[in-house]
Write a structure and sequence with these properties.
It contains three helices and eight strands; from the N terminus they run H-E-E-E-E-E-E-E-H-E-H. The chain is an alpha/beta fold.
């Protein structure tokens, strides 16, 4: 079982290496016009997109429990309305207010903006201890994860099926604080080595006690 766990961690390491290469490749490509994006595709992660539209000024979301430079805050998720649909755009980190009851003011550009973004497709579903309550009328709304369906219902309008993140220098960007890969590939290798060492220790203990028993 321990050896199997170690092999699984090595497989996760290779997956992260492949993801990193894919991210780097897509960052070298020119952005695609939003009118040319096939939103039905399963191969949209980190695709660079250029979009023209308007940031929603009032109805915004705050993605909870985000740390930057040892400070607690949120990531600001703002609907961006284009001629081809409304897209949830992560504009980066903003510091928490004096308390959790006092939400921060969110500076938002007015008028039509031309932005560069990359599509965000999470690797796995985030485990939640509680569901978000989006039924109240207060804005901005604090959420624990990006749930397109529930956020669409809260806004009262349809949304494109993926969210996106602003690129460096884009209009409306707050504090850029994202990593392409949350866990570095070598971390999984370290976990694998630990599992293999534990397996080796168990083998040594088994042989040691077996040898002593045979002597008796």
């Amino acid at each position: 079982m321990l050896i199997t766990l170690g092999m699984w961690q090595l497989d996760r390491e290779q997956q992260k290496i492949d993801l990193q290469r894919r991210y780097e490749l897509r960052q070298q490509q020119e952005p695609l016009g939003i009118d040319r994006v096939d939103w039905r595709s399963n191969d949209l992660a980190w695709l660079r997109v250029e979009a023209s539209g308007y940031f929603e000024q009032r109805q915004q979301f705050l993605l909870d429990n985000k740390i930057y430079d040892s400070r607690v805050g949120y990531e600001v998720i703002t609907p961006f309305r284009t001629d081809y649909g409304t897209l949830l755009v992560n504009r980066g980190w903003i510091q928490q207010g004096p308390s959790r009851q006092i939400l921060p003011a969110i500076p938002t550009p007015e008028g039509r903006q031309l932005i560069n973004i990359h599509i965000f497709a999470p690797e796995a579903e985030l485990m939640m201890l509680a569901e978000d309550n989006l039924e109240d009328t207060n804005w901005p709304k604090v959420v624990q994860r990006i749930d397109i369906e529930k956020m669409s219902a809260a806004l009262g309008e349809g949304l494109l099926p993926y969210s996106a993140r602003l690129e460096q220098g884009a209009a409306g960007l707050l504090q850029y604080n994202w990593q392409a890969i949350n866990t570095r590939p070598e971390t999984h290798r370290g976990y694998a080595i630990q599992w293999f060492i534990m397996a080796l220790v168990l083998v040594i203990l088994y042989l040691t006690f077996s040898f002593r028993r045979s002597e008796n």
